[in-house]
Amino acid sequence: MKVKISLFALILGLFIVFPKESFSQVPENPEGKSNQESNEAKENDKVDQEENAEDPRWKKADIRVIGDKKDLKRIPGSATIIGKKYLDETRPMDGMEVLRRVPGASVRYQDPAGLTMNLGFRGVSNEVSRKILVLEDGLFTSLNPYGEPEMYYTPSIERMERIEVVKGSGSILFGPSTIGGVVNFITRKPPKDPTLSVQTIGGENRYVSSMINYGGTFGNTGFDINVLRKQGDGFRNHQGFWVNEANLKTIHQLNDKHSITTKLGFHQQESQSTYIGLTTGMFNHNPKDNPAENDLRTIERYSFSLGHEWTLSEKARVITRVYSAYTQRNWARQEYSRNSSRTSTKPSDTLNTFDGEPFSGRYGDTIWMRGTNAHRDRTYKFAGIETKLQYEFETASIKHELDTGIRYHYDSAKVQLLTGPRTYDAAIYPNGYGNTPVIAVESQTSLAKSGDLRDDEQRNAKAVSLYVQDRIRLTEKLSVIPGVRYESFTQSRLIMKGRQNFDQVSFNYTSGTNPTVQMDKEGKSTQQILLPGFGITYDLFSHFTWFSGVHRGFSPPRYESAISPTAQDLTLKAERSWNYETGVRGDVTNYLNMQLVGYFLDFQDQIINSSAAGGNLGARPVNAGRSQHKGIETNLTFDFGNFFQWNFNLPFDVIYSRNEAKSNQYTYNLEEWTKGNSNPLVHKDTNGNWLPYVSKDVITLAFGIIMKTGFYMRAEWQYFSKQYHDLQNTKTVYWYDTASLDNQVKSLLDYNDIKSDADGLTGMIPAYELVNASIGYKRNDWSLFLSGKNLMDRKYISTRLPEGIQPGLFRQINFGITFNL
């Protein structure tokens, strides 16, 4: 898809002519913060008082997960706030760069710009962030929250003023997909005075990011509009991208009792994103290589919300929100083959061959990119309405803070797959497709821009949610927080066209020619789930709190898991977890802030393949997976500047998490058993194995200098211990006899003393470390900054999913400038 400049300009013009609204967000708070912000308290006070501070009236229109100081103390679980000051001084390029600094977080990069978020917490799968709830200003950001909660659209970090993360019992107010936690990205509220802000960043790999903000308050109406354009060549070959965004927010105060908020958003993206990773040899020879030069993903997203706040009294208010979003995601991916065995042969329609030079004949180390492709075209819609009551009252001198609400939500997905035939250059095949070539010229072919409809489905989900939580203040220091959430949802899958030959026993499509047929079958699945939660907080002293809590998290099954390709209801339950934690948080002194948490997570009813569960042959989904996660998380900041009473801040951050996430299930390869394979190693017991893509130890050490003159400097070192790729904890797999290889070839297969298979699909993820730094100078109306990511230019494996080695981000140095008018 080409850049739709005319459409972008039209929407921008409409935004300017017809300003609509703004969700407000929580203001910066100097106290009760997590360690990322704790010692920046005085600076944040200054930020709040600058000319860009929001109108005080808009503070009532908060869309929040945590909130301000008093709200942070109310959270009966671990909570992290990443504030504007930290974002300004580090200038992250994507959200995952920031969030991997949160204790317990795990991230994976599968594209060069962080356009797809792969985020998890405490060992819960981070694959496209399916097991966490990601919000922007309190509203959904995933494609279909109750059917396909993938994060192929990710809020742009450039627009954010603040990020809130809750992993404990406080997440009972939100849903679905709260097993791993809740992340809320918060954008700017309308400023009090009319302000024009401009930010421009440029750097390596032809990276450019430019954003313009304009907003202000006029009478009883405040608005804020921003336009963002960023682009670059990516960190690997053939991975260019661009993003266009425009967002408008307004708040209108009708009178003392009523206010109206609206938010309108537009996001447009094109990227050479791919599923194909590198082989081991390719990674060692040139980790920036990329065989999928013809893959192309386009995304367009439109979002709208309308909110009404009714202040009944000083202690009661009712908030109602209507919201919707439309996302079109089209993805053309070129087909390919591998030389996976001795019998593999090069396809006749091969356009390009990629291998790990100079060892190009090894099995598994060659990828043949073919002259056909498939178009995965999808359209997602969702809409909903939510009303909630926040009410403070007393019973027998005991204070209560009640949160209760109800929501109706609707998801819709149109899913199509088009298979594209091979097309030929007219100069080579002058009479069209299928004729004998006049001139034999190598690789003079192109890929189809469309194709024949193979799969055609309509998927829907309807959900009703009710929740209530009461914070009961037994004393001024001690509070108990009981709560419960009820979810009822129905999923449907109407299969209009699909492949004819599907094996109900093995649960796989037959190989070879498999014709498309008209099916017109529909299946439905309905579930209800009750999610209790209970927490305790106790103020040990003024700004230091002990908290403890337990809650039930859940994640709905995806459409494809709940209903089979023949429209059969597989009667799956939602995935559920019991989450327990206890810890302390707050300011020990004016120079030491800390949070220390211990947790245990019992993750049950995981949806896995039946063969892995040992139930029956094939890949039929069943609720047989189970794992247990336990660990500690600590983050503290010691400010040497405050300790020695210097005239500047010298914060030192220590962030550490120890996560022991292990399988608690028995799995067997029954297919090999039925073949008569007597090798006992085939029947692998995964009970006690480490979960994939979880670093047992993650450490971040950061040091900063923050002068009152406006000069600042930050540097950080991050360490991530080794990870397993699969539940079998495979260390090395070879598709050939390693005894016949010479030592030089064997050495190539070893990466940091951890062996990998040749095709890169299986093996361990070695430990790696990153060094990041930033330096800048900030005045009231302008700033200059220089930031460096992965300054050691470490070449590391971020993931082997979906289909081979995806390198992590290489070194990136950016320079930028901001100014306000």
Distance between the termini: 36 Å
Largest sheet: 22 strands, antiparallel, barrel
Q: What is the correct CATH architecture? A: Beta Barrel
Shape: globular
Number of domains: 1
Number of strands: 39
Strand content: over 45%
Overall helicity: under 10%
Determine the number of helices (DSSP H or I, runs of at least 4 residues).
Answer: 11
Average pLDDT number? 84
What's the CATH topology label? Maltoporin, Chain A
CATH superfamily: TonB-dependent receptor, beta-barrel domain
Structural class, from helix and strand content? mainly beta
Q: Which CATH top level class fits?
A: Mainly Beta
Poorly predicted runs are 1-52, 423-445, 669-683, 734-749
Radius of gyration (Å): 27 Å
Protein name: TonB-dependent receptor
Pfam families: Plug (PF07715), TonB_dep_Rec_b-barrel (PF00593)
InterPro entries: Beta-barrel_TonB, Beta-barrel_TonB_sf, Plug_dom, Plug_dom_sf, TonB-dep_rcpt-like
Organism: Leptospira ilyithenensis
